[in-house]
Amino acid sequence: MLRPYVRSFVLVVFLQVTGAVAGLAPLLAVAGLGRALFAPGAADPDRIRAVVLFGAAGLLIRLVCTAVSAGLGHLLDGRVQLGLRRELAAHLGRVPLGWLTRRGSGELSRIAGDDVAAVHPFIAHAPGELAAAFVVPLVSLIYLAGVDWRLTLITLVPVLAALAHVPLLMTPARTRDQRDHDAALGRIAAAVVEFVQGIAVVKTFGGTGRAHRGFLDAADTFVAVFTRWVRGVSTVAAGMQLALSPAFVLLVILTGGAALIGAGTLAPVDLLPFLLLGLGLTAPVAALGHGFDDLQAAGRAVGRIRAVLAVEPLSEPARPIRPAGDHVEMRGVRFAHDGAEVLRGVDLTLAAGTVTALTGPSGSGKSTVAGLLLRFDDPAAGSIRIGGADLRDIGSAELRRRVSHVLQDVRLLRASVTDNIAVAVPHATPDQVEHAARQARIHDRIEALPRGYDTILGTEATLSGGEAQRIAIARALLADTPILVLDEATAFADPPTDAAIRDTVAGLTGRTVLVIAHRPETVAGADTVLTLREGVITR
Amino acid sequence: MIRTLLRVTGPAYAGPMRRTIALMTAAAVAEGLLLILLVPILRALLGGDPAGVWQWLARFAAAVAGYAVLRYAADLAGMRVGTTMLRGMYHRLGDHLARLPLGWYGTARVGEVSALAGRGLLAALGVCAHLLGPFITACVTPLTVVAVMTVVDWRFGLAALVAVPVVVAVQVGAARASVAADAATAARGDEAAARVVEYLQAQPVLRAGEQDLFIPLDDALRELEKASRRQVRAVVPVAAGTAVTVQIVFTGLLALGAWLAVDGSIGVPELLALLILASRAADPLLSLADVSGKLRAARTELDRLDRVLTTPPLPEPSRPVRPRDDGVQFDRVTFGDVLHGLSLTVPPGQRLAVTGPSGAGKSTMLRLIARFHDTGGGTVRVGGADVRDIGTEHLMSRIAIVFQDVRLFDGTIADNVRLARPAASDDEVRAAGAAAGLDFVDRLPGGWDTRVGEGGTMLSGGERQRVSIARALLKDTPIVLLDEITSALDPDTESAVHDALERLLTGRTVIMVAHRMRTVRRADRVVFLDGGRIVEDGTHDELLELGGRYASYWNLSMSGKAAGKTSGK
Questions:
Q1: pTM value?
Q2: What is the ipTM of this complex?
Q3: In this complex, which of A52, A414, A529 lies closest to B568 when CB atoms are compared?
Q4: Band of the pLDDT at A251, cuts 50, 70, 90?
């Protein structure tokens, strides 16, 4: 997932570590100054000047390295996020549509948005800080051990005390709290998408103040989980913070140093490097502790991103077969939603060039039949063939050239009218788009919009349900495929439009059409009428 | 920043918030002050009096213990305030969103609001729990340390003080430089989030397309990356500025100390204590850039939250008026370019059908009655009272609406029906369901407890429609608004729902928008709307007699039906 970025990544980490190590120089300079001043005889100005210059040089290196690595790290982070989001988008465009519907756009958009953003500390901060957190104490320790190994061990006491808290952050209870926390946050995102999209319903039933309780419940659950999580962590975190606080570290070193000096086994001037570097020992550990939450959150976010990327996309044939003709045949097709079998062996034939109407009570699986013919999902059993070739062997590109659709639930894009109509045929000329719009009886309405065909839908103008449906019909007409699936295509049209569209569809001679219909009028003019009842064709 | 936070969260949290800030400041001051004890301790140790050090060390230990207590209390207070505020905020946001006019909700809002409710709220309130403490420490501790240094040796204190105005200037500059960049990144983030939702929901359409790439989404993602690039360019140099200042001053102090010591005008233990103090002041200052960067990010979220919460909801009357009866009246109502001076009176108990071509303003009429928007001009009255004077709560208790585009919540079917009257018993919910023809529920594996999925996608259009009729039945209001509701029903279901509808409509004021002429025929009165005006008004028979627009609709629809019957075999 992150392979292409490794080289830049290594550079960022290298700079960060170099900068952190160079940051020790000014502290060593202070200790060096102390030694020079306590040296027997008069202070040596050259030695003192060298010490000051050493400190200044270290500062400069630290500064440059830190600034450059921070800049590079964040730029890299931006690139990684872009790459991940593109990969997710491309993948989600290929997974079975049924899976997409079940997961919900709220949760998936959170993965593509927040979870990818949560990778940030992983890329821009954590690795460098982690490396620095090991390298800097190591360098300091080696130096200090050279001065006095006993005081070095004493200096390590606060660090060890802090590290001893770390396992407390990873107990099963903590891990569970954290998982609950993430899940609850996911539910909030899903609840808010529903809440905002269903706002009209919220407003009608909102009188009791409880209509939006789905959102509030999700929020309450989250806050409860969050509070439990924070409570569990906060005592541990406070303990860690105290152990690492400069005040406590100084206290430990001074006490140890005083004891050793009092016993006459430590030169007083040798205490200085401990007072300076000893504090430095804790800084990266503190950074590690601070970044620990972020890092764990990032780890879980990466897990969820991986899980989405691991969903098997609809298979593409290695060698696509070209269908011979537009004859459609379903044999023994079975399909289940969440364990409930919707289709129980559907046999259905659409003779090339004929109009077939499929009726049946709502919930009988009519829309599922349409979805399978469009290969939104693959059937659990049985086969669907166009011109003798199984859908799975045709390949998505050829399938698109063969089949287009108008579905019950029309989604308009926040884009110009032209782009909305030409979504399947981006290279269509304006004349072709207009022709399709006229055929779908929506041209006049479009002309009445503020900027005609250039009007951005959703921001500059909003279309009614019936109008949106006619845009969808224009889409399908423009795509001009030999096979057409219409699911309740004129449900919201007024009678003149309905009649006109029926005329248009009737005029599409030579096409293979499947009309899913609730209303008898829509069935008018069909060559064959089939009825779906409880998952099988009854006629 | 704190002021915005308090405005966003409401005045209830001002007290606890102030106490928390006071505790945090006290802890930060203590952390700086206790360092003054380094001077006598080092003097004893380096000056050859190791036995005299213990009394000072004991005081130091006591000071550290005092500091630890303050710090723990401050952390705990921060956490408490943070979590209570979080709950309060979710409720405030949720309640406010429900009160905003429907006109506020565009397509892009879904992305913006969901980002706000998820990441945004947490980031904004994380300020209290995680950032406020470190920020106060980073500001207050160095200042205290500088004060301590001044007490020990005024020359050192003065030299260190030079850094203060520079660091402040750099911080202010950083804030200015990044405000625009942060806001731009946040806006691009919203756009990208909205595009992702759009992309996912439009999959059925997009998959019919030739290209694999959804250009608007890819553009939005690339714009987001570009914005974050600009943000890095704006912030990193200024962040480095703080570090440069702090480090130059530290090097200066080192040189000054060396010079004074060689000069003999400062004792060596004092000098070393001062330099250790200086390194203590430098560390928090260096973290200031990092902390304030995070604070700014939180601030961006906070400002967005503030903007949403300060968007005025539809004004509520201070003294609500009760409607006299259940009549509905439009008095010269205009609305955008949809309605142009519409006047219409519907007496209580009348069943009015509104028909006409798409875009004529039929659905808008219903929305104005329910006050989803306020009119541009003129008045909508219910029971003689202006809907603006009735108050949303009471208005909604009188009206039930069944929409054309039914949205269900991701809960069980029972939950969705019960939404209309949360206090309803299970039996009442089931009775409403049965009356609305929800018999399919019994065939579902989970029965009434079956979850309907996001937006109700697990149910078919007709099934969703019936759930929404059941809601209206359960709500049992004197006024019923129906928006094109039988369009998605099959004939079997429609006749099943017919009885339910009759039950729903009898004895109530009904305004129904309809294309289906069968539905229209059952109305007491029909108005034909075109271009935001009433062009025909009368009973079904009168309008047929008139032979105008309505008559032509009726004839077309009947001919379709006849054709349907003949070819239906």
A1: 0.71
A2: 0.77
A3: A529
A4: very high
